[in-house]
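re: ur question from earlier - yeah i can do the single chain one, its not a big deal. heres the input i used so u can compare w yours
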Amino acid sequence: MGFAPFEWMIAVRYLRARRSSGFVSVIAGFSFLGIMLGVATLIVVMSVMNGFHKDLLDKIVGINGHIFLQAVDTPLTDYDNVARRVANVPGVDMAVPMIEGSAFASSNYAQSGSGVLVRGIKEADLDRLPSIAAHVRSGTLTAFDKAGGVAIGQRLADNLNLRVGDKIKLITGNGAQTPFGVVPRVKSYTVDAIFQIGMAEFDGIFVYMPLPSAQAFFNEDGQASVIEVFLHDPERIDSVRDAIQAAVVRPVMMTDWRERNRTFFDALNVERNVMFVILTLIVLVAALNIISGLIMLVKDKSHDIAILRTMGATRGAVMRIFLITGASIGVAGTFAGFLLGLVVADNVEPIRQFLNRLLHANFFPAELYFLSQLPSVVDPRDVASVVGMTLVLSVLATLYPSWRAAKLDPVEALRYE
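and the output i got, formated as tokens:
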């Protein structure tokens, strides 16, 4: 049966603050605040965790490729032919041959240097990497092959006090063979471009140079160390692995971004799930407050319940009155938390910047969290699960107190009146 109008009227009256039941109203207020803050916190935290996952996936996978082909048995001297065949596989956006090697970078404008990852790449391929070409902050990648310079990250440029046109010195142990052993190679390159990906770790270690220059620098003339394959959909690697393997037509070792970053993303997913469980306890505590508040309300209103029963109200009517009372707190708190959570999740970065200025602190240091901004992506499925879970807990919290109210014996309640 539906809820009768008089049941709504009595339930609303019980929610109002009365002198005789002021403490009950205080508990109801705290329950409302607890549910509101719990729902809002869950939505914000889940949105930030989604933002972390998306941004890190876009940046880590976007700059490193999705599948990596490395030579086995013989050097990868036919990298152009292999890259051309792989690029023709359905689902592959591009295949980029590269030279990768570690080096030590320094400059005349800084007292210390840092380790870097040098990547040799063709100008045509570099222009097709959106994570680099679309994020050049100063300088240009035009005539990158002919200029013979390098492109470095903004964080590395800041650490070495470099600007476009300055010289960066690179040192590698893969130098020339001499009778006395391998001599480290030291060479200076002009900084032609400075890019900023937005991920502090990458902005501080990557150095891009023309492929022929990298081959000469690392003493690997005529070969590539890896072919990075970029897919249209990085989540569907398994559907194209066999086709890529068939197109290579030579022994290669094939790895993908999931294998290289599995531990990192697994840890991120575990942290997301644990945070959801922990923050759900806030909602659970608020639901327990609804139980305690309704039990006290039933005790306080036992005389009123007895009178309602003697006037003809059924046990079901009494139970529905207290169901409305408790559920109203839960529904109102959930709706308020839903709105608050969406507002905060959509403005989490401006809020962070405001708190940094207000408290003169840095609540999201880029060197610790990899990203230069606090990301947030609202997932409708997460929001729906949070709202649905909270509504269910709120309704379940009202069942026992409502049942106790319905079981109240009017004779016992009015015995000493």
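The chain has two domains: 5-58+264-413, 74-250. not sure if urs matches, ping me
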